[in-house]
Amino acid sequence: MINQDDSQQTFADEIKASSGVNFNSCLHCKTCVNGCPFVEGMDYAPNAVIRLIQFGMEEEALNCSTIWVCVGCNTCSSCCPMAIDIPGVMDGLRHKAIKQGIKIAEPDILNFHTEVLNTVKKYGRTHKLEIMMRYKLKTMNLLSDMGMGLKMLKKRKLDLTPSKIQDKKAIGKIFNKK
Amino acid sequence: MEKSSTRNKNTDQSERMKLSFFPGCSLKASGHENTMSLLKFCDRVNIDLIELEDWNCCGSSSAHSVDHEVAKNLPMRNISLAPKGIPLMIACPSCMIRMKSMYLKIKKDINLQKEYEDLWGKPFDDELEIIHFFDIFDRINLKDYIADPKGKLKNIKVAPYYGCMLSMPPDLRLEKNYYGVIEKSLKKLGAEIISYGYGTRCCGTYLSAAKPKLAEKVVNEIVSKAMEAGAECLVTACAMCHLNLEIRCTIENPIPVLHFSELLSMALGAQDQKKWFPRHIVDPVPLLKKRGLIT
Q: Which of A51, A66, B47, B107 yields a CA-CA distance of 20 to 30 A from A148?
């Protein structure tokens, strides 16, 4: 059932404002769906997510896996006949989902992003080995991909020690200024 | 005898181009073979790279996904560190997007400029030129540095792989398009270019860690399409894509994946491949030996 009351209109307006993308020009031609390399890992196709917003289905839109599986490769936006920045819309929805503290559909992906930013907060740069170790620990999945990790270590693709920046105060400015 | 007038362009120190260089985390910490061959290449073509002092992570895919404020501040600080008067060169496509799109945003937003100046205590340099490694090929002529360019790569069949980040993200749609740079330069050096239609397909980026099965599927597709088209190797523009194409490929006997900078350096006569190739998961040495590119 589609209700067009005021509160539902607000959700679409809010995402439009926060993402800066006018998704209402979407033709629902599904070019984005056919082009997306990761669509099979999504519960809603990219254009369907836009439809959810247009229908005011906030909960479904914020709870869907699509907003997390989308990596922002821009295959969709490059071939979209209306040049809609679809990954920008996903970004807007992700931020709202985090802000509202709702259950995240793909906690592993959020955990990964958090671990990346944790190393940046510590060193000013990312540290792949630490990201992977902490990520595996958090997702309680220590043994998965162990062979790959060892192979990468053997090929020296994972530096043991982090590369760090000198100006620690700058990291404070980057992360604390809110 | 006065020799300076006959001195080769290659060795003339005064003609060396100076660029400020942002390596980024991938090149600095895991893609060492990419960095080493890149530095070698730049040195050979008379370019001095001055590493941006105390640079930080650009924010990559993670910052803009979860924290807009951090995603803004990370590239902002890097921009504030760039020396005036020389271009800032970035080799990682992902860092390039983050830094350049933020730079353009600040440039056209007076409020952001004020924020920048308050936070980093210096005026915003609206003349800073941010360029990608590929821009170098507009500024030099490879033929100036190689006597017989055509024979250098001995018709090795390469499938160029750009990945998605150099495609046209909406923020940079009006900026330069880099497609064709790998084809043009490697062809000039005697490689045979294979077209296979998957050169801009996304490698899966961080899904390689969080959803390995999804990444595996796209990586296998890219590598197998290149092989079906007759490529002997893939050539990548991005250190992160390189890693994914190597670690997530599960097809049997895949072709090796070379960094663009490795092939360039080899064509220019670099001899230190022994430091690069042990870091590859699929050993490129047998192919390069077969083609007579190394002994």
A: A66
